[in-house]
What we know:
Layout: H1 8-51, E1 55-57, E2 64-66
Antiparallel strand pairs: 1-2
Amino acid sequence: MPPFIIPPLVKWTLVALGGAAMVHWVVREVKRANEELERAKVRARVTDRERRPYLRLDPATGEYRPQ
């Protein structure tokens, strides 16, 4: 059986298509990860605000103290 010979142009075309597919996949995954991180940041900000104590001015000392 003769060896299977692929012309160089076909090889480079396949490499280019594979590279483009990989770049497309990486970009999609990075966008997905960034969206997930952004949602987590928003949840953390809301949770942090709920737990943050309010500060009131203490008239005796003039300092702000937690409520």
